[in-house]
Amino acid sequence: MSELVTGEAVALELRPAKLPSRVLAVVLDLAVWVIAYVAVLVALALSTAALDDAAQAAVAIAAFLLLLVGGPIAVETLSHGRSLGKLAFGLRVVRDDGGPIRFRHALVRGAVGVVEILMTSGVVACIASFVSARGRRLGDVFAGTLVVRERIPAGRTAFVPPPPPWLSGRFAELDLSAVPDGLWLAVRQYLTRMRQLDPQVGWAMAERLAADVAGRAGTQVPHGVPPAAFLAAVVQERQAREARRAFGGGGGPGVPYGGVQPQGPGYGPVPPGPVPGPVPGPFQAPAQTPFQAPVPAPVQPVAPADPVVPAAAPVPPPARDADAERPSTGFAPPA
Q1: How many alpha carbons fall within 13 Å on the CB side of residue 285?
Q2: Are 227 and 194 in contact (CB under 8 A)?
Q3: Which residues partner with 149 through β-bridges?
Q4: What is the pLDDT of residue 145?
């Protein structure tokens, strides 16, 4: 892998093309151009037979410059770095920052290639590619380009882990339009490598990326949600929106792939409180050093003081019977 830094300060890992594949691509390109050049020379020889030797030599030189020099330059410019040989072997010419080449890059590569490939039979180009750490020939060095591989085995493709089930579809209302592409690339690269990072370093990186994404989206990381799980859920939501936009899948905002709304408890807006339930493996917080409580100092016994006798509560006066105090009149009610 070769790490290239883009204009947004994002590190890209590209696989430089090895020398055998580059040699085979150049041989295929030269075979095609030489056949075309010979066919053009035969046609020019038949059409310019009446001209003198100087005119025929001038026509042959012009055909050489147009076909063997101008042809590859035009093809690489129009195809953004993919000639016939490179297309057959899965190669591509890119800039040092990973972007597509332009006419000036193809012009420098073609002009230097006349010397190091055509005039020296490729010996100078092979030596320069063998010495270079990224397999660049002199034309690549002067043009600021690099030949990389476009075809990567499927088994080694980076895999973005899905978020926990209790986070699927919970960030449907977030506005992700303000998150730049460079930040999305950094989040994707972190999610594909978080199992290879040190737990403490990975957790700190996830917190920083989650804070950046949440700040661009105008929200905060929900309390109790691990930052790596938050990033995975937001990336899944962005992919679901792009899939609906590209394929026209229904289901409304927040519905994952295929327009199927997940059923069961827990789907909906993110609750403000902590999320119940365990968090699966890669989204767990790093293990912390066990905390040992300090041992309290021994307490000296204190002699008990004299007991304090509480004051007796005041006794309420006895209730007086109203019938006993009422004077007798000698009248008795009827039975």
Answers
A1: 8
A2: no
A3: 91
A4: 92
